[in-house]
Amino acid sequence: MLLIYLVLAVGGIVLTDHFLFAVTYAHKALIELASARAWTIAVGSGAVLYARTWVGTRALRDSDSARRHVEARYRDLIEVLPHGVIEANSDGVVRLTNPALAKLAERLRLPEGRRRLAEELRRFFVQLADADGTDAGTGRLCIDGAEDTRLLQIDWRRLSPTSRQPDGFVACVTDITDEQRNRQRLDFLAHRDPLTGLANRNLLLQRLRAALDEARQQQRPVALIQVDLDNFKRINGHFGHLRGDRALDAVARRLAAALPEGATPARIAGDEFLILVDGLGLEEASALARRLRSALHQPLGIDGEVIAATASIGVAACTPKGPHDEAALLQGAAEAMLEAKRAGGNVCRVYSPRLQRELGERGDRLGLVRGALKDGAPVLHYQPRVDLASDAIAGMEAVLRLPLPDGGGCAEAREFLPLIEDRGTVDRLGEWMLREAGRQLRRWLDEGIDIGKLALRLPGLTFRDRHLARSVEELIVEAGVDPARLQLEVTEDELIRRPSQIARVAWQLRAIGVDLGIADFGHGAVPLTCLHRVPFTHVVFDGPAVMVSAPEGGGLHAIGSVARVGSAFGADVVVRGINSMMLLSAVEHSGCRLWQGDCRAPAMPAAEATVLLHARLGSAKVSVLRPTQPGS
Fold this sequence. Notes:
Layout: H1 2-16, H2 19-80, E1 84-89, E2 94-97, H3 99-108, H4 114-130, E3 136-144, E4 149-159, E5 168-175, H5 177-191, H6 201-218, E6 222-229, H7 232-239, H8 241-258, E7 264-267, E8 272-278, H9 282-297, E9 300-302, E10 305-307, E11 311-318, H10 326-342, E12 348-350, H11 353-375, E13 379-387, E14 393-403, E15 410-412, H12 413-423, H13 426-446, E16 453-457, H14 468-479, E17 486-491, H15 492-497, H16 499-511, E18 515-519, H17 528-533, E19 538-542, H18 543-549, H19 555-568, E20 572-576, H20 581-587, E21 594-596, E22 604-605, H21 606-615
Parallel strand pairs: 11-12, 14-16, 16-17, 17-18, 18-19, 19-20, 20-21
Antiparallel strand pairs: 1-2, 1-5, 3-4, 4-5, 6-8, 6-11, 7-8, 9-10, 13-14, 13-21, 13-22, 14-15
């Protein structure tokens, strides 16, 4: 119709030129056109609405399916999680848990099982709800189980309330007890000694640096005390490492008990301890070191065994206004301890400018010894052994010396023998000493000089030779001397280290008529079982060293004790190191039979010894006249 009306209107204007006719049909065409447009719009709107409804329904259906799929995936994920998961409302009422939480309750072995765990978690969530805090966090919960206390870590998040679900919490619950214990164990091992529980070197150095920083600012002193047990290898060798460890633990407890509050004792090596004392000067630290030495002087009772443990102690301190240097303080304590070792052990030494100078001089001397050993060779000197009762020479000792260049005198064996041992030539040295001593004894006998017995202290490594007795016998035959005139000496330290080997060699030597003596007797804790196994004929000990190692005022008593032990085994007792008339007078009634020392005649070359012996020649023995006192 719209098309017909349009044709009539146009035709009326063009063909008939009838305007009214054209207007009428044009009006009808417009009305028809408006009606058709409205219908088109309605149809289009309906189609659009339908399309939108269809698409929205499809989207909602797909969204609901996806949501259910995601929920299923998360549910599966929560089910397989190794950690317990719980959802609870703000009153702590549980809404959801996973199987891992039930297994956690079983592992905890709580008295009431899951109910007890749920109650503890409910209290935890109630406290969170009452507190004004963040929306998420981590908390810890301690629960007393059937066997021990367990530590739970709870990582929680606050849930926002929705129309479908009120507010509450979701949390992940993990048992971190073992993890915490392992962390504490690792921290302990990083900073503590596992045997004694004392601080280790790392922790002590940390505290030392902190103490020095504060002392530098506040101008106060800091002291270090280094304690090294004497002859601890002997204790391990005789009593076993297990008892040795228990002895170390007992020593650590004694040291800790004798220290002031705030001090840090540390075990820095096998038998070495280092003690940091903040605020103590050199004098106070020295007094503390003497108290520590006294605390260790009492024997230890370990598994029914009595173990004597002495210690060499070194003390170093920085002055309030002096340099607070960590390395210098550590080195000073170590050097002072080594000086105590060189003094025979069981003594305290303080690192001072004087000791520093002495150490420097000793270093220079060591350089001379190295040079002399490189350019020359050791020699034997001879020192008389005198009978305390008759004041007559009862024997001689051949001692090893090393001439130093430029009139520097002679170095003693302890200064250069370790260098020879490092070279691996100590066996040849022992053989040379035996041959040279036998030849000199033969020369004196040929000249009509009867010195009695000639003692010779061989290097310790020489006694490890299983063929030593055969070599000695061959050299005696070569020298043409009576085996009964020869005395070989082994140190007490070597006897304790290798008692069975030394006992075997000793019996072999006695079989060919050669005496065996124990040198440095009383220096360590030699077990009586070792003494019973070895057929020794005499013992030799250093008088000054024994006196220094004894408690204050007990030096002469210590010398008498050592002499009585030797005499109890039927052995002659020789005290050496008598370098003053006052010391000689003190040991006259100590129970020793023989003495030797520089106050009468120091060790001298064979030619000088021969002149001395000719000058003092007696009928059977060589007499040694007592020197006149000044003014007499």
